[in-house]
């Protein structure tokens, strides 16, 4: 995550319990554990590092305030992502436009291959730009579910928990999101070809 020690499930449960009771050091441990992945998630959603930093802080402020009222076993990572996703959607709605970063994570091997083959590098850049354009035109909820599934690699169960909807609703959203992506992508490819 950010170089800190990863907490076991039992340790995390202890930190959550202590944080619910107002232990600031316990909440600080939770913050240290999750700050980096939540920031990265938010950054991919809003595309601006300063805004992502502000929203990350707001996410943890909201989590700190809401934690004492959480009952039962808490999937902390999913709960924090749900808070972050709602903050991002609210922010993007206010902004009334959506910017998403390319999904592609490139390895050192891919980057060095691009140096050896500039044409390959150019095609990769064009594809990323096309994907970005498609994402920019998609419905916000469809983009969010695609990001959670395809980029974050979350299961339908995890996505359902984050979005506060049923697994069936997640599957339906994913189906519609993929269809929308394919439709827009095909239109852009056809326009490029003509």
Descriptive report:
- With 194 residues, this protein is mostly helical.
- The chain has a domain at 1-101: Rna Polymerase Sigma Factor, Chain: A.
- The chain has nine helices and no strands.
- It has helices spanning 9-20, 24-46, 49-66, 76-95, 108-116, 118-137, 140-151, 156-163, 167-193.
- Helix 1 (9-20) packs across helix 2 (24-46).
- Residues 97-102 and 104-111 have low confidence and may be disordered.
Strand portion: under 5%
Query: What is the average of the pLDDT values?
Result: 81
Distance between the termini: 46 Å
Number of strands: 0
Question: What is the H-and-E element order?
Answer: HHHHHHHHH
- Largest sheet, strands/sense/barrel: none
CATH hierarchy: architecture of the domain at 1-101: Orthogonal Bundle
**Under the CATH scheme, which class of the domain at 1-101?**
Mainly Alpha
Q: What is the percent of helical residues? A: over 70%
The value of Rg in angstroms is 19 Å
Report the structural category.
mainly alpha
Uncertain runs: 97-102, 104-111
The CATH superfamily label of the domain at 1-101 reads RNA polymerase sigma factor, region 2, helix turn helix motif
- Per DSSP, the total helix count is 9
How is the CATH topology of the domain at 1-101 named? Answer: Rna Polymerase Sigma Factor, Chain: A
What general form does the structure show?
elongated
């Amino acid at each position: 995550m950010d170089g800190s020690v990863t907490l076991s499930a039992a340790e995390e449960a202890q930190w959550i319990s202590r944080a619910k009771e107002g232990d600031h050091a316990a909440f600080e441990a939770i913050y240290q554990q999750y700050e980096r992945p939540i920031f990265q998630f938010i950054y991919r959603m809003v595309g601006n590092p300063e805004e992502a930093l502000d929203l990350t802080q707001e996410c943890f402020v909201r989590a700190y305030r809401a934690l004492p009222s959480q009952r039962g076993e808490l999937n902390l990572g999913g709960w924090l992502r749900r808070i972050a996703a709602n903050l991002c959607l609210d922010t993007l709605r206010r902004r009334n436009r959506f910017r998403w970063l390319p999904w592609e994570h490139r390895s050192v091997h891919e980057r060095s291959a691009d140096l050896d083959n500039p044409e390959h590098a150019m095609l990769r850049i064009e594809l990323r730009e096309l994907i970005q354009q498609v994402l920019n035109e998609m419905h916000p909820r469809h983009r969010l579910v695609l990001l959670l599934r395809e980029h974050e690699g979350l299961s339908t169960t995890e996505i359902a928990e984050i979005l506060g909807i049923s697994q069936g609703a997640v599957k339906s959203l994913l189906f519609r999101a993929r269809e929308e992506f394919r439709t827009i992508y095909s239109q852009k490819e056809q326009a490029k070809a003509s």
